[in-house]
Specification:
Number of strands: 2
Shape: elongated
Strand order of the largest sheet: 1-2
Number of helices: 13
Distance between the termini: 139 Å
Largest sheet: 2 strands, antiparallel
Structural class: mainly alpha
Strand content: under 5%
Length: 339
Amino acid sequence: MEAMEDDSLDLKDDHNHNYCASSSSKVRTYLSSQLSAVSTGSQAVSPPVSGLEPGARRGGLWAGGTRESKFMDSDSGSESSEVSETDCTAPAAAVEGKFTLDSTSKFLLNAMAVDDYRKNHWPDLERAIDRLLIQNPTDHVSVSYAQIYSYVYKCVCQQHSELLYSDLTSKITSHLQQVSTHLQGSPAESLIENFNIALTQYTASLQCIVPVFMYLNKFYIESKLNRDLREDLMKLFADHVAEKHVNTLMPLLIKAHSMPFQVQPSTMASVVKGLYSLRPEWAQLAPALFSGFIPQINPPAVESLLSDYAAYDQKLQMELSMNGFPRGDQSRKRASDDS
């Protein structure tokens, strides 16, 4: 047994837990002593000592406590690597103080970031939006689109997407309320024309605003709100302008449609199509009017109503001829084979 212990002291660890002896003779001596011990039954293997912690057994402190084993876990390195209970236990007051400090720091940093947004980013964006909203479609407005794009990108990267979207919609809503107030003061004979100007100018402005707010649209409105920026801004026009004037516009449009060229055909088409794009259900207020500019407003034709369709066409031709639209010179028309 003493020879076995002496030989075990010479075993070496190669840091991969592969133990080897210093010489082949010691290995043979160790194996022969083990075989002899098993065959004679004179030696017995001591069972593991119960009641010891795993760390104590791994450190080599056996029952008897006189000597440490050289078989130590290579991952532990040394006894100093073990952490005591006092090192693992942190005072509750220190933890709470650190948490409070971190929370306060984050709050102050967030407040500073919002303040920087209010002072350095949004004022420039607001001025650019103002210029884009009041421009005419044929005018050239000197606006640095690259600078606006850069501001929007920085705001989105600094987690100000929600704040930027709120400011953008509030700014455009305020502008549309002014447009609605201006239309309320328009005389009836020019309301159609003024409404068309407001709609055309607003649509042209969105063609510049939406692209420079692409990052806001992609990383906040589409991803989190599941909506689209242009659709939201067009909805603002429908809510704050078109809806307030549609009941006044419809009788004027129907009257203008019954009297050709009272209003320019391009203006009529632009207003009717614009109203339909904002709210398709508005077509039900005047189906005959909308069907003259938008296909498939009326229900599909039915064979049993062909005679009614022919009568309607004849009535329309009579109305046109009575209003000064003759059919023209028919003398040069080729005669029918039946005549």
